[in-house]
Amino acid sequence: MAEAAGDSPSHVDIDVAIVGAGIIGIAAASFLQDEGRDVLLIDRGEPAQGASFGNAGAFAFSDILPLASPRIMRKAPRWLIDPLGPLSIPPAYLPEILPWLIRFWRASWPDRVRGAMVAQAALMRLASREMAALVAAAGLDGMVRSDGSLELYEHEAELTAAMPGWDARAQEGIAFQHVRGAAMADLQPGLSPRFVAGTFVPGWKTVSDPYDFASALAARVVRRGGRIARHEVAAIRPVAGGVALDCRDGRTITARQAVIACGAWSRPLARALGDDVPLETERGYNTTLPPGAFDIRRQLIFGGHGFVITPLSSGIRVGGAVELGGLTRAPNFARSEAMLRKAADFLPGLKTDGGRQWMGFRPSLPDSLPVIGASRASADIVYAFGHGHLGLTQSAATGRLVADLLAGRAPALDISPFSPQRF
Ligand SMILES: Cc1cc2nc3c(=O)[nH]c(=O)nc-3n(C[C@H](O)[C@H](O)[C@H](O)COP(=O)(O)OP(=O)(O)OC[C@H]3O[C@@H](n4cnc5c(N)ncnc54)[C@H](O)[C@@H]3O)c2cc1C
């Protein structure tokens, strides 16, 4: 990589520099290449080793309800009592996360919930369309399972409590079917009798393995002439004729335009550009059991317990949970084990030996919406981060919107709800 001559480059090293080679950066590169743009993906590590490595692999297009909601606020105190439950906050991190929690609480008010849901539904419609196009163009249909998901309820009261959420989805045109008895057992044989009902969502899809999927897309970026370079970017700044990226190894890379797609680590880069975005991380945990640990027919969702089970080519992945614990604390894999124990109760006969544990950093905003938009400092520096639980699902839509923004076109949908300046 050539070094920049100074702050006013007469030429730039690259057309578009994308910082962060997770699924969001990789998808952005893919859509920019469709328009003939020359892209450089920059990551401090190998591609797709962050949150995009070990997630649950779902294209969760029906997941339009924001996490911040009156329902979650009612459940949260009970969840927080259990240190290994679906939601936890290490006490020492509480002072740091408090401002984010206050914003989260405000985002749970009914007026905000409705707005967030409408914005999320619009993004999901684009996500479904653009992901289908990307998968087809990349020839990755063989990596996508289209067998839907099954959410499970232990009590009638749990289903009743979920009904307003399903009604809201119905209003957005999302198909689903509540099931019981034999219909439920057909969708997933071998469930514990403690589950009295379920909801089948046919439009939900999963990938064979999220790392394989992201890697295949990254390999396609390279095949189409894109480059991947290993640097840690310390700062990005507008310069005459483009953008300069200062790397920790002392290099400066210049580009016409840049994208910040550093997932949970994006906050300092945005702050230096004048955008103090309240990005936090929701740490999530899982265990991937060897293939054959159970005959899982489709993704199973245990909403009351905050985890899912996904059949992958690499095995059976059991996990989820939210730990608001920041970016530096060591993982607490007792969380993975707690979910595995529950999974064994829910699926009697599940073989729990030989699993691989993993923890990942979801990049999360308090209103459950991502940040997609231009920086305050320059229209040539665009943000694409903060997708929380839905980054894989929304990666292609984000790529489409980033390409629109950098081309100076009206974006494919109203992006004001995702503005970096909304806070
Ligand atoms: C347990 C769990 C389950 C999940 N399940 C799902 C699911 O089923 N479906 C779904 O849609 N989403 C799911 N998610 C969320 C999803 O994984 C994330 O939203 C998504 O991976 C975020 O992608 P990203 O590219 O923004 O970030 P990442 O994948 O974290 O990538 C960010 C990249 O930026 C790089 N980077 C950071 N700082 C710098 C820097 N300064 N310089 C250079 N490089 C830098 C990192 O090395 C990293 O490679 C899940 C997450 C978890 C934790």
Automatic annotation (TrEMBL):
Residues 15-405 form the FAD dependent oxidoreductase domain. The keyword Transcription regulation does not apply. SUPFAM superfamilies: FAD-linked reductases, C-terminal domain, FAD/NAD(P)-binding domain. Keywords: Oxidoreductase. GO terms for molecular function: oxidoreductase activity. GO terms for cellular component: cytoplasm. It comes from the Bacteria. PANTHER family: GLYCINE OXIDASE, SARCOSINE DEHYDROGENASE-RELATED. This is Glycine/D-amino acid oxidase-like deaminating enzyme. The lineage of its organism: Bacteria, Pseudomonadati, Pseudomonadota, Alphaproteobacteria, Hyphomicrobiales.
